[in-house]
Design brief:
single chain, mainly alpha, Arc Repressor Mutant, subunit A, 2 domains, two-stranded antiparallel ribbon
Length: 193
């Protein structure tokens, strides 16, 4: 299926149009935040009519949900040594934050907007709780452990990538892992309090 041509160019498939909309939305949400980003601006950036955005995503909230669909890509905890889970998870997040502006944009929106906060909660809950359940001594305690791990990871990301506190922003990968890994390890694998 093809859709309208972007600014007089060749017609795109619906898949290409959706991809262009999502890319424009990610960039616009990152630059402007949720409140200031508009469907009209996103459509302009994607080179399409605003009605196409509405056709595919319904409204700004639907577009934001689609644009912030993120697979955190956790390593399979069964492939990691039990005593190295904290270090592996912190290193994984460090690499993700360093290489993915969408995560930083999502965090920015999450601290300023209820829709963004709900999206961050959903992503971390849907993906962190199963990971914690796979490795913690009591799977019933996984939601609490996942919340504690998320607090550490998101706290570092907020201070390093959004607020840019000099000490947090200046730390090397090795320093970040060394400081956070023992705490994350304890949250994941220590016997319950």
């Amino acid at each position: 299926m093809t859709t309208e041509a972007p600014a007089g160019g060749p017609r795109r498939t619906s898949g290409a149009t959706k991809a262009a909309i999502l890319e424009a939305a990610r960039e616009r949400f990152a630059a402007d935040g949720y409140e200031r980003a508009t469907i009209r601006a996103i459509a302009r950036d994607a080179g399409i009519d605003p009605s196409m955005v509405m056709r595919y995503y319904g409204n700004k909230e639907g577009l934001f949900a689609a644009a912030s669909e993120i697979d955190l890509g956790f390593p399979d905890p069964r492939t990691l040594p039990a005593e190295g889970l904290g270090a592996a998870l912190v290193a994984h997040f460090f690499d993700r934050w360093e290489g993915d502006d969408v995560l930083t944009a999502l965090l920015r929106v999450g601290v300023t907007n209820a829709t963004g906060a709900e999206r961050v909660r959903a992503i971390f809950s849907e993906q962190m709780v199963p990971l914690a359940a796979a490795v913690c001594p009591d799977p019933d305690d996984a939601p609490r452990r996942a919340a504690l791990v998320s607090a550490q990871i998101l706290g570092l990301a907020l201070t390093r990538y959004v607020l840019r506190f000099p000490p947090a922003a200046a730390m090397s990968r090795e320093e970040v892992v060394a400081w956070l890994a023992p705490t994350v390890q304890r949250y994941l694998t220590a016997e319950g309090a």
